[in-house]
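Intended use. Records like the one below are meant for learning the mapping from a protein sequence to its folded structure. Do not use them to infer anything beyond what is encoded.
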Amino acid sequence: MKSFRKELWFETRTRRALINITSKIEECLRESGIKEGLLLCNAMHITASVFINDDESGLHGDFEAWLEKLAPEKPYSQYRHNGAEDNADAHLKRTIMGREVVVAITSGKLDFGPWEQIFYGEFDGKRRKRVLVKIIGE
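Structure written out for the chain above:
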């Protein structure tokens, strides 16, 4: 069995962003040479997420509105975590959206259902953060 590991780095200009990283993950898969196995992709920061969903702008707006209702950014004083930082909402949003995805690899391709894409979700941006890609298989 082979193993492949790579870190992807992101730095958004905004506090929150959803970035389609499917092509970057497919590039990692090609680089690995693995044709059958499993791919793990996870955010390595507690205020960022990796998740699978549809790449549709209306849905992305819905995510933003829904997350803001569940864990509003302001007022900062509503959170006990906020003291030296103002990112308690980002921690909660990450928990809701998830830390990682696992995707089957079949015949050298990500074995997705219709419309599935991989996204990096940033909830406390404007600084450099990383995503781990780990692929195991043959």
